[in-house]
Design brief:
- The chain is mainly β.
- The chain has a single domain, classed as Sandwich (Jelly Rolls).
- The chain has 1 helix and 26 strands.
- Strands 1-20-17-22-15-12-11 form a 7-stranded antiparallel beta sheet, with no helix packed on it. A 6-stranded antiparallel beta sheet has the order 3-8-5-6-25-26, with no helix packed on it.
- The protein is globular and about 55 Å long.
- It comes from Lujinxingia vulgaris.
Length: 350
């Protein structure tokens, strides 16, 4: 990281590696942006898969990857324990299934928040629905750590439908020149949807914020100060020029900034600028990670592995490792208790 001259900006780092660097309490942040071709009849890419390492394709060949999918891109059933996943589905769709018996199709701005707790198995398939036009799938997956006392809580997931996520509109006179989507935390009188009950974000002292900022050319926005116990990282992931205070940030760079300082962002480029903000008070506990398992000590990882071998984290109630819903199925969620919700019925949201 290179130190800057601005007191509020602690460091700037290029976003050239995956995952992106994060601060406690965040463990992981990755940006998937796959420009899939038109779909075939099985909701996979209508293109040759020759030359790809099917089942482990992260190549980005032709602008897209299959990941661990062999027909439909995505991540067939796999376990998690000891942390949470926040999945921001910006474009395209994700078909979710899990060992709690829950399932969902979400996308187009929806957010899924899942507490793995003492263990869950889930699948994330990226169905390609359009057989006449390309299928872009863009998403963030963020891993948020859990305090030790919450790592043994039951798994839980909730949906934040795009229509219910608060947005602060950035104005210049009567014109709207940008917006901030408030996925977690609070901003200018807007409160984000309620996170899962055992989340670090459910505690007021965590000061967790997850925001995405859009700025039209020439527009600016000032992040309000939090406090000196709060870490804050800004990821400039879309656009051609952004100024942070008077420091010019190059595209695809991240900045660690002081939590107790106001910081002004201005789009000094000619295209839309977009920034992801991850903010939070550190949990401050030891972290040991082994793939999709997170504990505080090495013995925790051994116990998680034993629990997974013995229980399968509840088993797998589906016939396929990567269930895909029918092509014409809309956005929905079925929870572990059988309750079903859709974006058309936000009053039934979890």
């Amino acid at each position: 990281m290179s130190e800057t001259k601005k007191d509020a900006i602690r460091a700037i780092v290029p976003l050239t590696s995956t995952p992106w660097p994060t601060l406690d309490p965040f463990l992981f942040c990755v940006h998937h942006n796959d420009h899939y071709p038109v779909a075939n009849e099985k909701m996979g890419p209508d293109a040759s898969l020759a030359g790809r390492n099917i089942g482990n394709d992260f190549s980005g060949k032709d602008g897209w990857s299959m990941y661990h999918g062999d027909t439909v891109p995505g991540f067939p059933r796999h376990p998690h324990a000891g942390f949470e996943t926040v999945t921001i589905a910006r474009k395209g769709f994700i078909d979710h299934s899990d060992s709690m018996g829950a399932s969902a199709r979400f996308g187009q701005g929806d957010v899924q928040w899942m507490t793995a707790g003492k263990g869950v198995v889930h699948s994330e398939a990226f169905p390609l629905l359009d057989r006449e036009n390309p299928n872009t799938t863009e998403l963030f997956q963020i891993w948020l750590n859990l305090p030790r006392e919450d790592k043994k809580k039951d798994a839980y997931f909730t949906m934040f439908w795009n229509e219910t996520i608060p947005r602060h509109l950035i104005k210049e006179g009567d014109a709207t020149v940008g917006e901030v989507a408030v996925i977690a935390g609070a901003l200018h009188g807007l409160d984000a949807p309620t996170p899962p009950p055992s989340s670090w974000a459910a505690r007021d002292e965590s000061n967790i914020a997850i925001w995405t900022i859009k700025l039209q050319p020439g527009a600016s926005f000032t992040l309000p100060a939090a406090n000196d116990e709060t870490g804050r990282v800004l990821y400039f992931f879309e656009g051609d020029a952004l100024t942070l205070e008077d420091v010019v940030m190059e595209p695809r760079h991240g900045a660690q900034v002081e939590g107790d300082a106001e910081v002004t962002l201005q789009n000094t480029g000619s295209t839309l600028a977009e920034v992801l903000v991850l903010q939070g008070r550190p949990i401050g506990e030891p972290v040991v990670q082994h793939g999709p398992f997170v504990g505080n000590y090495q013995g925790d990882i051994r116990q998680i592995m034993i629990d997974y071998q013995n229980t399968g984290f509840g088993g797998w109630p589906f016939d396929a490792d990567a269930p895909v819903h029918p092509r014409d199925k809309g956005r929905f969620a079925i929870h572990a208790d059988g309750r079903e919700e859709t974006p058309a019925n936000p009053e039934n949201a979890a």
